[in-house]
Design a protein that fits this description.
The protein has a domain of 50 residues. The protein is built from 1 helix and 2 strands; from the N terminus they run H-E-E. A two-stranded antiparallel sheet has the order 1-2. The protein is flat.
């Protein structure tokens, strides 16, 4: 990770904005995945396949953060709440 940071421009963390859960205000999230099935008709291999979509859920209330889903995938992901 240090190597990755050294390749990027140095950013003062004090000039950034924390991302928080829209529901409870918590600022920690856990990585989860939703899965999508790819039809053989549109698959590059001609075979049915599956692909993961990475999502992040609040560690306090379980609400999914739509802000952390890439813009091009937001229409595919329905918000979830982990019990």
């Amino acid at each position: 990770m240090e190597e990755q940071l050294s390749r990027q421009a140095r950013i003062d963390i004090n000039q950034t904005t924390a991302l928080v859960c829209e529901k409870c205000g918590n600022d920690t999230f856990q990585e989860q995945y939703k899965w999508r099935k790819i039809s053989a008709l549109i698959s590059p291999t001609g075979k049915e396949a599956r692909t993961p979509i990475q999502i992040w859920v609040c560690t306090k209330c379980g609400e999914m953060s739509i802000d952390l889903v890439p813009l091009e995938l937001r229409g595919l992901v329905v918000p979830v709440k982990l019990s």
